[in-house]
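Complex record, two chains
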Amino acid sequence: MTQAKKLPDFFARNIGSITAAQQLKLQEAIVTVIGCGGLGSFVIEELARLGIGSLRICDPDRFSISNINRQLYAQAETLGQYKAAVAAKRVRLLHGQTTVLPVMNRFQEEKKQLLANTEVVVDCLDNVSSRRELAGLCNQYQIPLVHGAVQQWYGQVGVQLAGGTLIQDLYGSHKEEETTAPSVLSCTVALIASMQVAETCKLLLGMESPLHNSWINIDLQRVTFDIIDRKG
Amino acid sequence: MDITIKLFAYFRDGRFKEVASRFFDEGATPQEVITSLGIKMDDVGVIMVNHRHADPAYCLQQDDVLAVFPKIGGG
């Protein structure tokens, strides 16, 4: 009876895929999402619907018209508004079971409030240099990082466990920042974001994944899903 | 020597997904193979030879499998 009391009906249809005890664990979890644009908006939406208890979400940017093709919370009436603030408002409208802390600043300036005591960080950034900085911070704080990146019809998802080198391995030879924003389709974004949420859920529940310290490369044009088999 | 080349994501556009065998001179490097395909090294994120991360200057061997991944950074 006590357990039934603690499990809101909002999440009844999660049970079966996960147990009631696991659902309660998600409701006690703290997850940080860095970037509230394409990937971030879908990740935030799905984490809230999964029943994550506490979300810390960060993005210094405001919505512009070119965001509308792929960013869930970008619409005519939110143009010019802070992405993190709009996302937080959306989460609060869903079910009231997820507390959300929006940070409208660069994550580098708000490290402590974003990363202290968080269980998983989700990388929804849009540039390589910031991703490398975030990966370094996650290792400093000993937090696993769920990485996702998209371009055109292509995407990748991987999990850097605490102390891992995945991001360094993916972008190690990177020298200079790309100057033009890449083309990205909403279907690519939604798929990669959903996979990031699945990996986040599994990390919170202590489940194994072939993407731990590795990654999957996805090609939606040719419909190939390649889990990268790394031997060192 | 014969090298198997696997390309990923947008590197496949206008090229191929996998070439089972392509001939290169002894001592060829991943960088030489990659540039011979018209791919800019600045666009390359990961190079793997036989499932292991490899340097662009690695000395390829007969029957090596070279996998080349672009940098994907968008969000």
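Note: The interface with chain B takes residues 35, 37-40, 124-128, 131, 148-152, 154-156, 169-176, 178, 181-182, 184, 217, 219, 222, 224, 226, 228-232 of chain A (CB under 8 Å).
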